[in-house]
From TrEMBL:
This is B-glycosidase. It comes from Massilia niabensis. Gene3D superfamilies: Glycosidases. InterPro entries: GH (IPR017853).
Length: 414
């Protein structure tokens, strides 16, 4: 019996890009189709199983399954069959930047319709997939509000700070209502609320922007989690139990130099204003004291193995400080196209190679080797057995490794 049993069956998690937004040209995108995950689901999950990963973030495409409140979830069946065959536990992502046509996200109807959809989705997957059950009601509320509320990249195509704030509040209201609806179906369902770790600094020659940068780092980064946990806007009905599990995403471009309009500029490697990931994770832990995962993380191209090495060092340094880190999600499992250019990002565990129109999966050897090294260090499985859920993660192994390796926070990432 585990001395400190974890929430998930494996410490390493993964997931698949599943955005369904209306993009700037008004065309509905479906990244599951663009990556070929819909056609390669069985192979994709078998790859994760062979890598000792038993948990994956998987999307339910709200705009496609909800037609004016009439639901058709049959498109999920091939994914559910593939998960069962490979012994994968899903974290169901119920809104990944996309919502049904004709629905105003600023309206009360958005909240009630999302709650009804969450209830129906939960009923469907819970009837088909054994527990425990995990859900992310709305992915990256903070980033969604910037992307669609201030930068105008996706619907509802708003372009002001005021509209960004309005969208964030609307999404938080819907997420809280969604959690409550899901727990009417399964009171024990666990929630993973995903948002980016962000650190913004003023340009060196713009001291007048220090306060704006500070606000984005210390207020805006946390506002969605604050609302869902009930710290802010308690009239929306948030609570620590609704926040449940905090999923903090970590990418290199999360540390930025402030810009007055448009996305901020990513700090380059070696910039002395970069803050160690350990410190960012600690700040989230000290604020909420809820179980945490790194909800997404990946390097790029030839840097993927080095990125994982850095993330693991920083994460274990944070574990030594006492944070309750339940897992690290290597996202995505399969490469994805850049939203703007369509070029392959090369950030997945597997690259995608187009061979005669078929998107073949090619694991990245250095990345896989680095994953294997850390599985060995943490005494983790490298391939799934017949019932991964029967034996949850022994978090004491992770804690022991953190103390044994004695890794120190380091902001000098490459």
């Amino acid at each position: 019996m585990a001395r400190r049993p974890g929430i998930f069956p494996t410490f390493f998690l993964s997931g698949f890009e599943c955005s369904t937004f209306l993009w700037g040209d008004g065309v509905r995108r479906n990244l599951v189709a663009e990556t070929g995950h819909d056609r390669h689901a069985a192979e994709d999950y078998q790859i994760l199983s062979s890598l000792g990963i038993a948990v994956a973030r998987e999307g339910i495409p709200w705009p496609m399954v909800d037609q004016d409140g009439v639901y058709d979830f049959s498109s999920l069946d091939p994914f559910i069959d593939a998960m069962k065959a490979s012994k994968i536990t899903p974290i169901w992502d119920l809104c990944h930047y996309g919502y049904p046509d004709g629905l105003d996200p600023f309206s009360d109807a958005f909240v009630s319709r999302f709650a009804a959809y969450c209830r129906a989705a939960a009923e469907y997957v819970i009837a088909k997939v054994p527990g425990p059950h995990f859900f992310t009601p709305i992915n990256e509320i903070t980033f969604f509000s910037f992307c669609a509320g201030e930068w105008g990249w996706a619907a509802p195509y708003q372009c002001s700070r005021k509209d960004r704030d309005r969208l964030l509040l609307a999404l938080c209201r819907a997420a809280i209502a969604g959690v409550k609806a899901i727990r009417e179906v399964d009171p024990g369902a666990r929630m993973v609320h995903i948002d980016p770790l962000v650190q913004v600094v003023a340009p060196r020659d713009r001291p007048d922007q220090i306060e704006a940068a500070r606000r984005e780092t210390e207020v805006d980064t946390f506002l969605a989690w604050d609302i869902i946990s009930g710290r802010e806007h308690p009239e929306f009905g948030g609570s620590p139990e609704i926040l449940d599990i905090v999923g903090a995403n970590n990418y290199s471009f999360g540390q930025m130099e402030y810009r007055e309009s448009g996305p901020h500029a990513a700090l380059p490697p070696g910039d002395d204003r970069i803050v160690p990931l350990c410190d960012l994770l600690t700040s989230v832990w000290e604020r909420y004291r809820r179980p945490m995962i790194i909800g997404e993380t990946s390097g790029l191209g030839l840097g993927r193995a080095d990125w994982l090495r850095d993330v693991m060092g920083e994460s274990l340094a944070a574990v030594r400080r006492g944070i309750d880190l339940q897992g690290i999600c290597l996202f995505p499992a399969v490469d994805m196209p850049d939203w703007h250019t369509g070029e392959w990002v090369k950030n997945g565990i597997c690259d995608v190679v187009d061979i005669n129109g078929d998107l073949m999966r090619v694991p990245n050897p250095p990345y896989v080797d680095e994953l294997r090294r850390w599985q060995k260090e943490l005494n983790r499985v490298t391939e799934l057995d017949e019932d991964p859920s029967s034996d949850p993660v022994e978090l004491q192994d992770v804690i022991d490794a953190a103390h044994r390796l004695d890794l120190q926070p380091d902001k000098d990432w490459h």
